[in-house]
Amino acid sequence: MVKLYGAGTLYHGPKSIESLKTITGTRAVIVTGHSSTRENGSLQRVCDMLQEKGWVCDVFSGVEPDPSIDTVRKGAAFMQEKQPDWIIGLGGTSSIDAAKAMWVLYEHPELPFETMIKPFAIPALRNKARFVAIPTTSGTGTETTSLAVITDRLKGVKYPIASHELQPDLAIVDGDLCQSMPADVTANTGMDALTHCIEAYVSNVEDNYADAFAKGGIQLIFANLKNAVENPDNLAYRQNMHDASALAGYAFTNSWLGIVHSMAHQMGAIFGIPHGRANALALPNVMRYNAKATDRFDDLAKLMGLSSACEFIKAVENLKKDIHVPASIKEYGIAREDWMKEVHRMAENAHLDVCTSFNPRPATVEELEKLYIALYEGESVDF
Predict the structure, then answer these.
(1) For position 213, what pLDDT does the model report?
(2) Distance (Å, rounded) from C-alpha 269 to C-alpha 348?
(3) pLDDT digit string (tens) for 240-275?
(4) pLDDT at 156
(5) What phi and psi values does residue 148 have, to the nearest 5 degrees?
(6) Residue 332 pLDDT > 90, yes or no?
(7) In 3D, which of 86, 80, 99, 83 has the Cα closest to residue 25?
(8) Rounded to 5, what percent of the chain is helix, strand, coil?
(9) Which residues pair with 165 in a beta bridge?
(10) Beta-bridge partners for 56
(11) With the C-alpha atoms ordered 14, 137, 227, 209, is the resulting torsion angle positive or negative?
(12) CB-based contacts of 13: which residues, under 8 Å, 6+ apart?
């Protein structure tokens, strides 16, 4: 018997933000980033809707990209002071992931970070608050997932926190909220969603429901991502990408991810490469590496009207090129000597990442090193 995991309730489509009026409570803490949700008006819209219902709304802002455990602790302390019965993660992935981790420490302030990062070690939540996720970028699908990624700045390591307790009670997937995303963010987050779909489909966890979500997401992304980058004001493209991101989240929260994410977590923690872009850089070569162990890339090729795994990998590379994603670390702008001196550390940390255990081909530290080295010049691997 297998359980299907996902957000408790999900509303999607333009103006679905109005569904926030359906929840009952008295006080909310809204967790958001530095400025984008203020500038695009989404923060004010959320506050206004809740205040019209007589709620008290407190805002914890300033969550940084790749949120740190220090920020999480500050947010949890803010929640201890305000005592909300709802926590709302509003913004990009960083805001929602940080809000999830703050929620854990709000309900369990004694819990060490070392325990939080152990797979499925989070104690029961919802004793003090429930959780709403409102994404304003179309990438991670964190609004539907059992995952949050938090960085330890002292160690220079990104840690995935995996627990089904982290599933939002309510997810709102409103494409109208992400129309202000610039082209590079649209491209990065779209490639993140594509990576989720592909890794979920080829993972070593077999799940028919996850497969269907992954395939649906892949089709939407290939049909809409380039258009969303080139026509940012087109709400149909925006909503389709927002839906694809959520489908990808459903896919991987039920079948998990692989070493693209393990590698990308380290690239983000050490070099500050945006997560979606790091995934895009690693994805084609990891697909080549994994194709030696699974025929599932051939399934995805057929889905897209192609004849082989090689053709599907090439289609992914062409999509990257079409949306102006760099093809190598060198092109991204990192010096070779800086990259090479961190390769072994990144490989060791990636090997320990929880995502590595779900990869269809068991990866050694030495193989991860080779993959990192090949990324610098964008060389194709064949091992």
Answers:
(1) 97
(2) 14
(3) 999 999 999 999 999 999 999 999 999 999 999 999
(4) 83
(5) -140, 145
(6) yes
(7) 86
(8) 55, 10, 30
(9) none
(10) 27
(11) negative
(12) 173, 174, 175, 239
**CB-based contacts of 60, cutoff 8 Å, min separation 6:** 29, 30, 31, 32, 74, 75, 78, 79, 102
CA 337 to chain centre: 29
pLDDT band at 35 (very low <50, low <70, confident <90, very high): confident
Residue whose C-alpha is closest to residue 261's, from 373, 342, 351 = 351
In 76-210, the DSSP E strands lie at 86-91, 130-135, 147-152, 157-162, 170-173
Amino acid identity, residue 72? V
Q: Which amino acid is at 179?
A: Q
* CB within 8 Å of 244: residues ≥ 6 apart: 138, 190, 193, 197, 216, 217, 220, 221, 224
Residue 160 corresponds to which tokens in the numbers above? Answer: 């995935």
In terms of C-beta density within 10 A (0-12 exposed, 13-18 middle, 19 or more buried), how is residue 196 classed? buried
* Token couple for 79: 């929640």
